[in-house]
Protein backbone atom coordinates (compact mmCIF):
# COMPACT_ATOMS: atom_id res chain seq x y z
CA UNK A 1 0.00 0.00 0.00
CA UNK A 2 1.06 3.61 -0.38
CA UNK A 3 3.04 5.06 2.51
CA UNK A 4 1.04 7.48 4.65
CA UNK A 5 3.39 8.96 7.21
CA UNK A 6 3.79 12.43 8.69
CA UNK A 7 6.52 13.94 10.83
CA UNK A 8 6.49 16.74 13.35
CA UNK A 9 6.02 19.53 10.79
CA UNK A 10 2.59 18.18 9.83
CA UNK A 11 1.65 16.62 13.18
CA UNK A 12 2.65 19.69 15.16
CA UNK A 13 0.83 22.21 12.96
CA UNK A 14 -2.78 22.09 14.04
CA UNK A 15 -4.49 23.09 10.79
CA UNK A 16 -2.60 20.45 8.82
CA UNK A 17 -2.89 17.68 11.39
CA UNK A 18 -6.55 18.32 12.22
CA UNK A 19 -7.64 18.32 8.56
CA UNK A 20 -6.36 14.79 7.94
CA UNK A 21 -8.73 12.12 9.25
CA UNK A 22 -8.37 8.39 9.84
CA UNK A 23 -11.09 5.74 9.97
CA UNK A 24 -11.11 2.24 11.45
CA UNK A 25 -14.42 0.44 10.68
CA UNK A 26 -15.89 -2.42 12.68
CA UNK A 27 -17.52 -4.27 9.74
CA UNK A 28 -21.02 -3.52 11.03
CA UNK A 29 -21.33 0.17 10.18
CA UNK A 30 -19.70 1.47 13.35
CA UNK A 31 -16.19 2.83 13.59
CA UNK A 32 -13.41 4.66 15.37
CA UNK A 33 -12.51 7.95 13.71
CA UNK A 34 -10.42 11.03 14.42
CA UNK A 35 -7.60 13.22 13.18
CA UNK A 36 -3.83 12.97 12.96
CA UNK A 37 -3.61 15.64 15.67
CA UNK A 38 -5.87 13.70 18.01
CA UNK A 39 -8.19 16.72 18.03
CA UNK A 40 -11.88 15.91 17.59
CA UNK A 41 -13.12 18.30 14.92
CA UNK A 42 -16.51 16.63 14.30
CA UNK A 43 -19.37 15.53 16.53
CA UNK A 44 -18.96 12.18 14.76
CA UNK A 45 -15.41 11.58 15.98
CA UNK A 46 -14.85 8.99 18.68
CA UNK A 47 -13.03 5.80 19.55
CA UNK A 48 -16.21 3.71 19.84
CA UNK A 49 -19.14 4.64 17.58
CA UNK A 50 -21.72 1.87 17.65
CA UNK A 51 -24.23 1.06 14.85
CA UNK A 52 -27.90 0.64 15.65
CA UNK A 53 -30.70 -1.02 13.70
CA UNK A 54 -29.24 0.45 10.51
CA UNK A 55 -25.66 1.55 9.76
CA UNK A 56 -26.79 5.18 9.83
CA UNK A 57 -28.39 5.01 13.28
CA UNK A 58 -25.07 5.18 15.10
CA UNK A 59 -24.37 6.24 18.67
CA UNK A 60 -21.19 7.76 20.00
CA UNK A 61 -19.82 6.07 23.13
CA UNK A 62 -16.17 6.34 24.15
CA UNK A 63 -15.02 9.71 22.84
CA UNK A 64 -11.34 9.80 23.74
CA UNK A 65 -8.59 8.34 25.90
CA UNK A 66 -6.31 11.25 26.75
CA UNK A 67 -2.80 10.12 27.69
CA UNK A 68 -0.67 11.86 30.28
CA UNK A 69 2.92 10.90 31.11
CA UNK A 70 4.11 11.24 34.71
CA UNK A 71 7.88 11.60 34.64
CA UNK A 72 10.22 10.62 37.52
CA UNK A 73 10.82 14.34 38.05
CA UNK A 74 7.18 14.74 39.00
CA UNK A 75 6.26 16.57 35.80
CA UNK A 76 2.93 15.61 34.24
CA UNK A 77 2.84 15.95 30.44
CA UNK A 78 -0.56 15.69 28.72
CA UNK A 79 -0.61 14.21 25.22
CA UNK A 80 -4.29 14.65 24.29
CA UNK A 81 -5.90 17.54 22.41
CA UNK A 82 -9.23 19.34 22.84
CA UNK A 83 -10.64 22.58 21.50
CA UNK A 84 -12.98 24.56 23.73
CA UNK A 85 -15.76 27.06 23.16
CA UNK A 86 -13.47 29.75 24.58
CA UNK A 87 -11.21 29.33 21.55
CA UNK A 88 -8.44 27.66 23.53
CA UNK A 89 -6.83 24.43 22.40
CA UNK A 90 -5.75 22.64 25.57
CA UNK A 91 -3.95 20.33 25.96
CA UNK A 92 -1.76 20.53 22.85
CA UNK A 93 -0.34 17.04 22.75
CA UNK A 94 0.03 17.18 18.96
CA UNK A 95 3.03 19.47 19.48
CA UNK A 96 4.86 16.49 20.99
CA UNK A 97 4.07 14.12 18.12
CA UNK A 98 7.17 13.06 16.23
CA UNK A 99 5.32 10.77 13.84
CA UNK A 100 1.95 9.54 12.68
CA UNK A 101 1.52 6.71 10.22
CA UNK A 102 -1.26 4.62 8.76
CA UNK A 103 0.06 1.08 8.39
CA UNK A 104 -2.16 -1.79 7.22
CA UNK A 105 -5.02 0.69 7.54
CA UNK A 106 -4.45 1.22 11.29
CA UNK A 107 -3.35 4.54 12.81
CA UNK A 108 -0.24 4.81 14.95
CA UNK A 109 1.08 7.82 16.87
CA UNK A 110 4.45 8.45 18.52
CA UNK A 111 4.92 11.18 21.12
CA UNK A 112 8.37 12.22 22.33
CA UNK A 113 8.84 13.78 25.77
CA UNK A 114 12.60 14.17 26.01
CA UNK A 115 14.03 10.67 25.96
CA UNK A 116 10.60 9.11 26.61
CA UNK A 117 8.72 7.90 23.53
CA UNK A 118 5.16 6.59 23.81
CA UNK A 119 3.44 4.84 20.89
CA UNK A 120 -0.31 4.36 20.47
CA UNK A 121 -1.96 1.82 18.15
CA UNK A 122 -5.67 1.39 17.63
CA UNK A 123 -7.84 -1.30 16.01
CA UNK A 124 -11.38 -2.62 16.03
CA UNK A 125 -12.47 -6.22 16.32
CA UNK A 126 -14.01 -7.08 12.91
CA UNK A 127 -17.69 -7.90 13.14
CA UNK A 128 -18.08 -6.53 16.65
CA UNK A 129 -18.39 -3.08 18.21
CA UNK A 130 -15.09 -3.26 20.07
CA UNK A 131 -12.06 -0.98 20.03
CA UNK A 132 -8.59 -1.83 21.33
CA UNK A 133 -6.15 0.96 22.19
CA UNK A 134 -2.57 -0.06 22.96
CA UNK A 135 0.06 2.27 24.42
CA UNK A 136 3.64 1.07 24.33
CA UNK A 137 6.86 2.43 25.81
CA UNK A 138 9.37 2.72 22.97
CA UNK A 139 12.25 4.37 24.86
CA UNK A 140 13.03 6.00 28.20
CA UNK A 141 11.27 5.13 31.40
CA UNK A 142 10.20 4.01 33.79
CA UNK A 143 7.18 6.31 33.56
CA UNK A 144 3.62 6.28 34.76
CA UNK A 145 0.93 6.62 32.12
CA UNK A 146 -2.62 7.84 32.73
CA UNK A 147 -5.50 7.56 30.26
CA UNK A 148 -8.47 9.86 30.92
CA UNK A 149 -11.67 8.34 29.48
CA UNK A 150 -14.04 10.99 28.09
CA UNK A 151 -17.46 9.51 27.29
CA UNK A 152 -20.94 10.23 26.06
CA UNK A 153 -23.94 8.26 24.88
CA UNK A 154 -25.91 10.02 22.15
CA UNK A 155 -27.02 9.93 18.55
CA UNK A 156 -24.04 10.52 16.27
CA UNK A 157 -25.83 13.46 14.62
CA UNK A 158 -26.47 15.31 17.88
CA UNK A 159 -24.79 16.42 21.06
CA UNK A 160 -25.25 15.90 24.78
CA UNK A 161 -25.17 18.72 27.32
CA UNK A 162 -24.17 18.76 30.95
CA UNK A 163 -27.46 20.32 32.04
CA UNK A 164 -29.03 16.89 31.74
CA UNK A 165 -28.50 13.86 33.95
CA UNK A 166 -24.99 12.47 34.39
CA UNK A 167 -24.04 9.30 32.59
CA UNK A 168 -24.81 6.16 34.53
CA UNK A 169 -21.67 4.23 35.45
CA UNK A 170 -21.98 0.70 36.78
CA UNK A 171 -18.73 -0.59 38.27
CA UNK A 172 -17.33 -3.87 36.96
CA UNK A 173 -14.00 -5.57 37.39
CA UNK A 174 -11.33 -3.40 35.76
CA UNK A 175 -13.61 -0.61 34.61
CA UNK A 176 -17.23 0.39 34.20
CA UNK A 177 -20.33 -0.09 32.06
CA UNK A 178 -21.54 3.26 30.73
CA UNK A 179 -25.30 3.82 30.37
CA UNK A 180 -25.76 0.05 30.17
CA UNK A 181 -24.52 0.38 26.59
CA UNK A 182 -20.76 -0.15 26.49
CA UNK A 183 -17.99 -1.32 28.74
CA UNK A 184 -14.55 0.12 29.48
CA UNK A 185 -11.82 -2.23 30.68
CA UNK A 186 -8.16 -1.75 31.53
CA UNK A 187 -5.61 -1.62 34.36
CA UNK A 188 -5.65 0.76 37.30
CA UNK A 189 -9.19 2.04 36.80
CA UNK A 190 -10.16 4.97 38.99
CA UNK A 191 -13.73 6.29 38.52
CA UNK A 192 -14.20 10.06 38.45
CA UNK A 193 -17.54 11.32 37.13
CA UNK A 194 -17.98 14.96 36.15
CA UNK A 195 -18.62 17.04 33.02
CA UNK A 196 -16.07 18.63 30.74
CA UNK A 197 -18.08 21.56 29.44
CA UNK A 198 -17.83 23.43 26.15
CA UNK A 199 -15.97 21.04 23.85
CA UNK A 200 -15.85 22.64 20.40
CA UNK A 201 -15.98 20.96 16.95
CA UNK A 202 -14.51 23.25 14.30
CA UNK A 203 -15.81 21.22 11.34
CA UNK A 204 -19.38 21.39 12.62
CA UNK A 205 -19.04 25.17 12.96
CA UNK A 206 -17.80 25.34 9.36
CA UNK A 207 -20.87 23.35 8.26
CA UNK A 208 -23.20 25.81 9.96
CA UNK A 209 -24.20 23.34 12.66
CA UNK A 210 -24.09 23.56 16.44
CA UNK A 211 -20.42 23.04 17.30
CA UNK A 212 -20.43 22.44 21.07
CA UNK A 213 -21.09 19.57 23.44
CA UNK A 214 -20.21 18.49 26.97
CA UNK A 215 -18.32 15.29 27.70
CA UNK A 216 -18.48 13.03 30.74
CA UNK A 217 -15.13 12.36 32.39
CA UNK A 218 -15.79 8.80 33.47
CA UNK A 219 -12.43 7.99 35.01
CA UNK A 220 -8.87 7.07 34.26
CA UNK A 221 -6.69 4.04 33.72
CA UNK A 222 -3.15 4.05 35.09
CA UNK A 223 -0.07 1.86 35.02
CA UNK A 224 3.70 2.04 35.18
CA UNK A 225 5.73 1.26 32.08
CA UNK A 226 9.14 0.10 33.30
CA UNK A 227 11.01 -0.89 30.16
CA UNK A 228 10.88 -0.80 26.38
CA UNK A 229 7.91 -2.81 25.07
CA UNK A 230 5.74 -2.49 28.17
CA UNK A 231 2.13 -1.66 27.33
CA UNK A 232 -0.96 -0.10 28.82
CA UNK A 233 -4.00 -1.30 26.90
CA UNK A 234 -7.69 -0.46 27.08
CA UNK A 235 -10.67 -2.20 25.54
CA UNK A 236 -14.11 -0.69 25.00
CA UNK A 237 -16.99 -2.65 23.54
CA UNK A 238 -20.75 -2.67 23.20
CA UNK A 239 -22.13 -4.29 26.33
CA UNK A 240 -23.70 -7.53 25.21
CA UNK A 241 -23.85 -11.14 26.40
CA UNK A 242 -21.02 -12.19 24.07
CA UNK A 243 -17.76 -13.25 25.70
CA UNK A 244 -15.22 -10.56 26.51
CA UNK A 245 -12.99 -9.70 23.56
CA UNK A 246 -9.41 -10.94 23.32
CA UNK A 247 -6.60 -8.83 24.82
CA UNK A 248 -6.06 -5.51 23.07
CA UNK A 249 -2.64 -6.43 21.71
CA UNK A 250 -4.17 -9.51 20.07
CA UNK A 251 -7.01 -7.43 18.59
CA UNK A 252 -4.49 -5.08 16.95
CA UNK A 253 -2.38 -7.95 15.60
CA UNK A 254 -5.44 -9.76 14.26
CA UNK A 255 -6.72 -6.59 12.57
CA UNK A 256 -3.38 -6.14 10.81
CA UNK A 257 -3.45 -9.73 9.56
CA UNK A 258 -7.02 -9.39 8.36
CA UNK A 259 -6.34 -6.16 6.50
CA UNK A 260 -3.37 -7.73 4.74
CA UNK A 261 -5.59 -10.66 3.73
CA UNK A 262 -8.23 -8.25 2.37
CA UNK A 263 -5.61 -6.60 0.18
CA UNK A 264 -4.16 -9.93 -0.98
CA UNK A 265 -7.60 -11.22 -1.97
CA UNK A 266 -8.06 -8.20 -4.26
CA UNK A 267 -4.81 -9.08 -6.11
CA UNK A 268 -3.82 -5.43 -6.55
CA UNK A 269 -1.63 -4.40 -9.45
CA UNK A 270 0.18 -1.67 -7.51
CA UNK A 271 0.33 0.12 -4.16
CA UNK A 272 -2.45 2.56 -5.06
CA UNK A 273 -4.80 -0.27 -5.95
CA UNK A 274 -3.86 -2.04 -2.72
CA UNK A 275 -4.75 1.10 -0.75
CA UNK A 276 -8.08 1.44 -2.57
CA UNK A 277 -8.88 -2.25 -2.00
CA UNK A 278 -8.53 -1.77 1.75
CA UNK A 279 -10.50 1.49 1.57
CA UNK A 280 -13.30 -0.40 -0.21
CA UNK A 281 -13.46 -2.88 2.66
CA UNK A 282 -14.71 -0.17 5.02
CA UNK A 283 -17.99 0.18 3.11
CA UNK A 284 -18.94 -3.51 2.89
CA UNK A 285 -20.67 -4.35 6.17
CA UNK A 286 -22.88 -6.98 7.73
CA UNK A 287 -25.87 -5.63 9.64
CA UNK A 288 -28.41 -7.16 12.00
CA UNK A 289 -30.94 -7.67 9.23
CA UNK A 290 -28.85 -8.13 6.08
CA UNK A 291 -25.99 -10.51 5.31
CA UNK A 292 -24.25 -7.71 3.45
CA UNK A 293 -24.86 -4.00 2.94
CA UNK A 294 -22.94 -0.99 1.68
CA UNK A 295 -22.34 2.14 3.75
CA UNK A 296 -22.44 5.08 1.33
CA UNK A 297 -20.00 7.20 3.33
CA UNK A 298 -18.43 7.84 6.71
CA UNK A 299 -19.11 9.36 9.11
CA UNK A 300 -22.77 10.27 8.52
CA UNK A 301 -24.30 8.15 5.72
CA UNK A 302 -25.95 4.77 5.88
CA UNK A 303 -27.06 2.53 3.00
CA UNK A 304 -28.44 4.09 -0.19
CA UNK A 305 -29.44 1.88 -3.11
CA UNK A 306 -28.17 4.20 -5.85
CA UNK A 307 -24.77 4.55 -4.19
CA UNK A 308 -24.64 0.80 -3.62
CA UNK A 309 -25.31 -0.07 -7.24
CA UNK A 310 -22.93 2.54 -8.66
CA UNK A 311 -20.27 1.20 -6.28
CA UNK A 312 -21.04 -2.46 -6.94
CA UNK A 313 -18.42 -3.32 -9.53
CA UNK A 314 -15.59 -1.55 -7.72
CA UNK A 315 -16.46 -2.75 -4.22
CA UNK A 316 -17.30 -6.35 -5.04
CA UNK A 317 -16.00 -7.45 -8.43
CA UNK A 318 -12.64 -5.66 -8.21
CA UNK A 319 -11.90 -6.90 -4.69
CA UNK A 320 -12.63 -10.63 -4.85
CA UNK A 321 -16.05 -10.35 -3.17
CA UNK A 322 -18.27 -11.70 -5.94
CA UNK A 323 -19.91 -14.23 -3.61
CA UNK A 324 -20.85 -11.50 -1.14
CA UNK A 325 -22.01 -9.35 -4.02
CA UNK A 326 -24.26 -12.14 -5.22
CA UNK A 327 -26.03 -12.17 -1.87
CA UNK A 328 -26.41 -8.40 -1.92
CA UNK A 329 -27.99 -8.42 -5.39
CA UNK A 330 -30.39 -11.18 -4.41
CA UNK A 331 -31.41 -9.26 -1.29
CA UNK A 332 -31.98 -6.05 -3.22
CA UNK A 333 -34.03 -7.88 -5.84
CA UNK A 334 -36.38 -8.79 -3.03
CA UNK A 335 -37.12 -5.09 -2.44
CA UNK A 336 -38.45 -4.42 -5.96
CA UNK A 337 -41.95 -2.96 -6.00
CA UNK A 338 -43.84 -1.70 -9.06
CA UNK A 339 -40.61 -2.03 -11.00
CA UNK A 340 -38.62 0.19 -8.61
CA UNK A 341 -35.76 -0.64 -6.26
CA UNK A 342 -36.15 0.30 -2.62
CA UNK A 343 -34.04 3.19 -1.40
CA UNK A 344 -33.36 2.67 2.29
CA UNK A 345 -32.98 6.15 3.68
CA UNK A 346 -30.75 6.98 6.65
CA UNK A 347 -33.91 7.40 8.70
CA UNK A 348 -34.54 3.67 8.33
CA UNK A 349 -37.62 4.20 6.17
CA UNK A 350 -37.90 2.26 2.93
CA UNK A 351 -38.74 4.61 0.07
CA UNK A 352 -39.14 4.29 -3.70
CA UNK A 353 -37.96 7.69 -4.81
CA UNK A 354 -35.24 7.41 -7.47
CA UNK A 355 -35.54 7.18 -11.22
CA UNK A 356 -31.99 5.87 -11.69
CA UNK A 357 -31.35 3.57 -8.71
CA UNK A 358 -33.30 0.73 -10.32
CA UNK A 359 -31.47 1.19 -13.63
CA UNK A 360 -28.12 1.05 -11.81
CA UNK A 361 -29.35 -2.23 -10.32
CA UNK A 362 -29.92 -3.63 -13.82
CA UNK A 363 -26.38 -2.53 -14.67
CA UNK A 364 -24.91 -4.15 -11.55
CA UNK A 365 -26.57 -7.50 -12.26
CA UNK A 366 -25.41 -7.41 -15.86
CA UNK A 367 -21.84 -6.60 -14.86
CA UNK A 368 -21.85 -9.34 -12.23
CA UNK A 369 -22.90 -12.01 -14.72
CA UNK A 370 -20.51 -10.72 -17.39
CA UNK A 371 -17.52 -10.55 -15.04
CA UNK A 372 -18.11 -13.80 -13.15
CA UNK A 373 -19.99 -16.01 -15.61
CA UNK A 374 -22.62 -16.53 -12.90
CA UNK A 375 -25.49 -17.26 -15.26
CA UNK A 376 -27.37 -19.00 -12.45
CA UNK A 377 -27.87 -15.63 -10.77
CA UNK A 378 -28.88 -14.10 -14.09
CA UNK A 379 -31.47 -16.84 -14.60
CA UNK A 380 -32.77 -16.43 -11.05
CA UNK A 381 -33.21 -12.66 -11.28
CA UNK A 382 -34.34 -12.48 -14.90
CA UNK A 383 -38.11 -12.58 -14.15
CA UNK A 384 -37.68 -9.65 -11.75
CA UNK A 385 -35.58 -7.73 -14.27
CA UNK A 386 -38.13 -8.26 -17.03
CA UNK A 387 -40.81 -7.06 -14.62
CA UNK A 388 -38.78 -3.85 -14.13
CA UNK A 389 -38.82 -3.22 -17.88
CA UNK A 390 -42.55 -3.94 -18.08
CA UNK A 391 -43.31 -1.61 -15.16
CA UNK A 392 -41.38 1.23 -16.79
CA UNK A 393 -43.26 0.64 -20.04
CA UNK A 394 -46.58 0.75 -18.21
CA UNK A 395 -45.60 3.64 -15.95
CA UNK A 396 -44.82 3.64 -12.24
CA UNK A 397 -44.38 6.08 -9.35
CA UNK A 398 -43.37 9.76 -9.76
CA UNK A 399 -44.40 9.89 -13.39
CA UNK A 400 -41.65 7.45 -14.39
CA UNK A 401 -42.67 5.94 -17.71
CA UNK A 402 -41.51 5.21 -21.23
CA UNK A 403 -42.80 7.87 -23.59
CA UNK A 404 -44.74 5.95 -26.27
CA UNK A 405 -43.80 8.64 -28.79
CA UNK A 406 -40.07 7.87 -28.78
CA UNK A 407 -39.25 5.02 -26.36
CA UNK A 408 -37.28 7.29 -24.00
CA UNK A 409 -37.79 7.38 -20.25
CA UNK A 410 -39.47 10.41 -18.73
CA UNK A 411 -40.06 11.24 -15.07
CA UNK A 412 -40.99 13.96 -12.64
CA UNK A 413 -43.73 15.29 -10.37
CA UNK A 414 -43.82 18.58 -8.46
CA UNK A 415 -41.36 18.69 -5.57
CA UNK A 416 -39.49 15.54 -6.57
CA UNK A 417 -35.75 15.21 -7.20
CA UNK A 418 -35.36 11.73 -8.64
CA UNK A 419 -31.88 11.70 -10.21
CA UNK A 420 -28.57 11.54 -8.36
CA UNK A 421 -28.64 15.35 -8.40
CA UNK A 422 -31.23 15.27 -5.65
CA UNK A 423 -30.33 18.14 -3.30
CA UNK A 424 -33.17 20.16 -1.79
CA UNK A 425 -33.22 23.48 0.00
CA UNK A 426 -36.21 23.98 2.29
CA UNK A 427 -37.92 21.11 0.50
CA UNK A 428 -37.45 22.57 -2.98
CA UNK A 429 -35.23 20.64 -5.42
CA UNK A 430 -32.20 22.64 -6.56
CA UNK A 431 -31.89 20.70 -9.83
CA UNK A 432 -35.24 18.92 -10.37
CA UNK A 433 -34.34 17.77 -13.91
CA UNK A 434 -37.89 16.72 -14.78
CA UNK A 435 -38.38 15.34 -18.27
CA UNK A 436 -35.83 13.05 -19.91
CA UNK A 437 -32.41 13.35 -18.22
CA UNK A 438 -29.48 12.24 -20.35
CA UNK A 439 -27.89 9.79 -17.89
CA UNK A 440 -31.26 8.26 -17.00
CA UNK A 441 -31.91 7.46 -20.63
CA UNK A 442 -28.37 6.20 -21.14
CA UNK A 443 -28.99 3.88 -18.20
CA UNK A 444 -32.37 2.89 -19.66
CA UNK A 445 -30.80 1.96 -22.99
CA UNK A 446 -27.99 0.12 -21.18
CA UNK A 447 -30.42 -1.68 -18.88
CA UNK A 448 -32.70 -2.91 -21.65
CA UNK A 449 -29.71 -4.24 -23.59
CA UNK A 450 -28.33 -5.92 -20.48
CA UNK A 451 -31.63 -7.67 -19.73
CA UNK A 452 -31.85 -8.76 -23.38
CA UNK A 453 -28.41 -10.33 -23.10
CA UNK A 454 -29.38 -12.14 -19.89
CA UNK A 455 -32.55 -13.40 -21.59
CA UNK A 456 -30.54 -14.82 -24.48
CA UNK A 457 -28.11 -16.49 -22.07
CA UNK A 458 -31.13 -18.11 -20.43
CA UNK A 459 -32.40 -19.30 -23.81
CA UNK A 460 -35.40 -16.97 -23.75
CA UNK A 461 -36.88 -14.86 -26.52
CA UNK A 462 -35.38 -11.35 -26.42
CA UNK A 463 -36.79 -9.94 -29.68
CA UNK A 464 -39.12 -7.52 -27.91
CA UNK A 465 -36.31 -6.23 -25.75
CA UNK A 466 -34.08 -5.74 -28.79
CA UNK A 467 -36.80 -3.75 -30.57
CA UNK A 468 -37.30 -1.61 -27.48
CA UNK A 469 -33.56 -1.03 -27.25
CA UNK A 470 -33.15 -0.11 -30.93
CA UNK A 471 -36.02 2.38 -30.78
CA UNK A 472 -34.63 4.06 -27.65
CA UNK A 473 -31.12 4.26 -29.15
CA UNK A 474 -32.45 5.92 -32.31
CA UNK A 475 -34.47 8.43 -30.31
CA UNK A 476 -31.52 9.13 -28.02
CA UNK A 477 -29.23 9.88 -30.98
CA UNK A 478 -31.87 12.11 -32.53
CA UNK A 479 -32.82 14.06 -29.41
CA UNK A 480 -29.78 14.56 -27.18
CA UNK A 481 -27.08 16.16 -29.37
CA UNK A 482 -27.06 19.93 -28.67
CA UNK A 483 -25.94 22.77 -30.96
CA UNK A 484 -23.27 23.67 -28.37
CA UNK A 485 -21.28 20.58 -29.34
CA UNK A 486 -22.17 18.34 -26.42
CA UNK A 487 -25.32 16.54 -25.25
CA UNK A 488 -28.37 18.10 -23.68
CA UNK A 489 -28.59 17.45 -19.95
CA UNK A 490 -32.38 17.08 -20.13
CA UNK A 491 -34.78 17.05 -23.06
CA UNK A 492 -38.50 17.68 -22.91
CA UNK A 493 -38.06 19.53 -19.61
CA UNK A 494 -41.02 21.65 -18.51
CA UNK A 495 -40.42 25.26 -19.51
CA UNK A 496 -39.93 27.53 -16.47
CA UNK A 497 -42.98 29.63 -17.34
CA UNK A 498 -45.25 26.58 -17.35
CA UNK A 499 -46.22 24.23 -14.52
CA UNK A 500 -44.95 20.67 -14.58
CA UNK A 501 -46.91 18.83 -17.23
CA UNK A 502 -47.72 22.03 -19.10
CA UNK A 503 -47.81 22.26 -22.86
CA UNK A 504 -44.46 24.01 -23.35
CA UNK A 505 -41.15 22.20 -22.96
CA UNK A 506 -37.50 23.02 -23.51
CA UNK A 507 -34.20 21.22 -23.82
CA UNK A 508 -31.55 22.01 -21.21
CA UNK A 509 -28.03 22.28 -22.66
CA UNK A 510 -26.11 23.33 -19.52
CA UNK A 511 -22.68 21.71 -19.54
CA UNK A 512 -22.89 18.97 -16.91
CA UNK A 513 -21.10 15.60 -16.55
CA UNK A 514 -24.24 13.44 -16.72
CA UNK A 515 -23.81 12.95 -20.47
CA UNK A 516 -20.64 10.92 -19.81
CA UNK A 517 -22.84 7.85 -19.24
CA UNK A 518 -24.09 8.15 -22.80
CA UNK A 519 -20.55 7.27 -23.93
CA UNK A 520 -19.19 5.16 -21.08
CA UNK A 521 -21.68 2.39 -20.23
CA UNK A 522 -21.18 -1.11 -21.70
CA UNK A 523 -24.28 -0.68 -23.90
CA UNK A 524 -23.92 3.08 -24.31
CA UNK A 525 -26.33 4.64 -26.81
CA UNK A 526 -23.61 6.69 -28.55
CA UNK A 527 -19.98 6.38 -29.54
CA UNK A 528 -17.91 9.00 -27.74
CA UNK A 529 -17.02 12.12 -29.68
CA UNK A 530 -13.41 13.19 -28.90
CA UNK A 531 -14.28 16.82 -29.62
CA UNK A 532 -17.24 16.77 -27.25
CA UNK A 533 -15.10 15.08 -24.60
CA UNK A 534 -12.50 17.79 -25.12
CA UNK A 535 -15.10 20.47 -24.46
CA UNK A 536 -16.19 18.62 -21.32
CA UNK A 537 -12.60 18.36 -20.16
CA UNK A 538 -12.02 22.08 -20.54
CA UNK A 539 -15.23 22.99 -18.71
CA UNK A 540 -15.51 20.30 -16.07
CA UNK A 541 -12.31 18.42 -15.31
CA UNK A 542 -10.33 19.13 -12.10
CA UNK A 543 -7.56 17.18 -10.33
CA UNK A 544 -10.20 15.42 -8.19
CA UNK A 545 -12.67 14.64 -10.97
CA UNK A 546 -15.38 16.43 -12.99
CA UNK A 547 -17.40 19.36 -11.73
CA UNK A 548 -21.18 19.05 -11.63
CA UNK A 549 -21.57 22.26 -13.70
CA UNK A 550 -19.13 24.28 -15.78
CA UNK A 551 -17.88 27.60 -14.36
CA UNK A 552 -19.27 29.63 -17.26
CA UNK A 553 -22.82 28.31 -16.74
CA UNK A 554 -25.50 30.37 -15.00
CA UNK A 555 -25.88 29.32 -11.39
CA UNK A 556 -22.33 28.00 -11.01
CA UNK A 557 -21.14 27.91 -7.39
CA UNK A 558 -17.49 27.07 -6.89
CA UNK A 559 -17.45 26.73 -3.11
CA UNK A 560 -19.23 23.88 -1.32
CA UNK A 561 -19.23 25.65 2.05
CA UNK A 562 -21.43 27.25 4.67
CA UNK A 563 -24.58 26.09 6.40
CA UNK A 564 -26.87 23.29 5.18
CA UNK A 565 -28.81 25.52 2.76
CA UNK A 566 -25.66 27.00 1.23
CA UNK A 567 -23.99 23.62 0.89
CA UNK A 568 -27.06 21.93 -0.59
CA UNK A 569 -27.48 24.79 -3.07
CA UNK A 570 -23.90 24.26 -4.30
CA UNK A 571 -24.02 20.45 -4.11
CA UNK A 572 -24.68 19.93 -7.84
CA UNK A 573 -24.02 23.44 -9.11
CA UNK A 574 -20.27 23.23 -9.63
CA UNK A 575 -19.07 21.02 -6.79
CA UNK A 576 -16.57 18.34 -7.85
CA UNK A 577 -17.66 14.69 -7.57
CA UNK A 578 -14.71 12.25 -7.66
CA UNK A 579 -16.94 9.26 -8.54
CA UNK A 580 -17.47 10.77 -11.99
CA UNK A 581 -13.84 10.01 -12.86
CA UNK A 582 -15.12 6.51 -13.66
CA UNK A 583 -17.44 7.40 -16.55
CA UNK A 584 -15.03 10.14 -17.69
CA UNK A 585 -12.16 7.65 -17.99
CA UNK A 586 -14.38 5.00 -19.63
CA UNK A 587 -15.60 7.48 -22.23
CA UNK A 588 -12.05 8.68 -22.87
CA UNK A 589 -10.78 5.14 -23.35
CA UNK A 590 -13.56 4.38 -25.81
CA UNK A 591 -12.67 7.56 -27.69
CA UNK A 592 -9.03 6.48 -27.92
CA UNK A 593 -7.84 9.25 -25.60
CA UNK A 594 -5.09 8.72 -22.97
CA UNK A 595 -6.33 8.28 -19.40
CA UNK A 596 -3.34 7.51 -17.17
CA UNK A 597 -2.82 11.15 -16.18
CA UNK A 598 -6.47 11.48 -15.13
CA UNK A 599 -5.81 9.75 -11.81
CA UNK A 600 -2.76 11.65 -10.55
CA UNK A 601 -4.67 14.17 -8.45
CA UNK A 602 -6.93 11.54 -6.89
CA UNK A 603 -3.96 9.32 -6.07
CA UNK A 604 -2.30 12.24 -4.27
CA UNK A 605 -5.61 12.91 -2.52
CA UNK A 606 -5.31 9.55 -0.72
CA UNK A 607 -3.06 11.20 1.85
CA UNK A 608 -4.77 14.60 2.03
CA UNK A 609 -8.23 14.30 3.65
CA UNK A 610 -9.73 10.93 4.53
CA UNK A 611 -6.45 9.03 4.79
CA UNK A 612 -6.20 6.11 2.39
CA UNK A 613 -9.61 6.92 0.92
CA UNK A 614 -11.44 9.30 -1.45
CA UNK A 615 -13.79 12.09 -0.43
CA UNK A 616 -17.41 12.58 -1.40
CA UNK A 617 -16.95 16.02 -2.96
CA UNK A 618 -14.57 18.97 -3.41
CA UNK A 619 -14.82 22.66 -4.18
CA UNK A 620 -15.32 23.48 -7.84
CA UNK A 621 -12.70 26.24 -7.72
CA UNK A 622 -9.00 25.86 -6.94
CA UNK A 623 -7.46 24.53 -4.78
CA UNK A 624 -10.42 22.09 -4.92
CA UNK A 625 -10.39 21.50 -1.18
CA UNK A 626 -12.22 18.29 -0.29
CA UNK A 627 -15.66 18.54 1.31
CA UNK A 628 -18.45 16.20 2.36
CA UNK A 629 -17.72 12.75 3.74
CA UNK A 630 -13.96 12.10 3.92
CA UNK A 631 -14.62 8.43 3.13
CA UNK A 632 -17.11 7.83 0.30
CA UNK A 633 -18.02 4.47 -1.23
CA UNK A 634 -18.67 5.38 -4.86
CA UNK A 635 -15.61 7.65 -4.99
CA UNK A 636 -13.36 4.79 -3.88
CA UNK A 637 -15.19 2.19 -5.97
CA UNK A 638 -15.07 4.09 -9.25
CA UNK A 639 -11.39 5.01 -8.93
CA UNK A 640 -10.59 1.40 -8.06
CA UNK A 641 -12.66 0.08 -10.95
CA UNK A 642 -11.41 2.41 -13.64
CA UNK A 643 -7.69 2.55 -12.87
CA UNK A 644 -7.10 -1.03 -14.02
TrEMBL record:
Residue ranges annotated for the Glycogen debranching enzyme C-terminal domain, each copy included: 279-641
Protein's UniProt name: Glycogen debranching protein
Native source species: Micromonospora lutea
Lineage: Bacteria, Bacillati, Actinomycetota, Actinomycetes, Micromonosporales
Domain named Glycogen debranching enzyme bacterial and archaeal type N-terminal: residues: 20-226
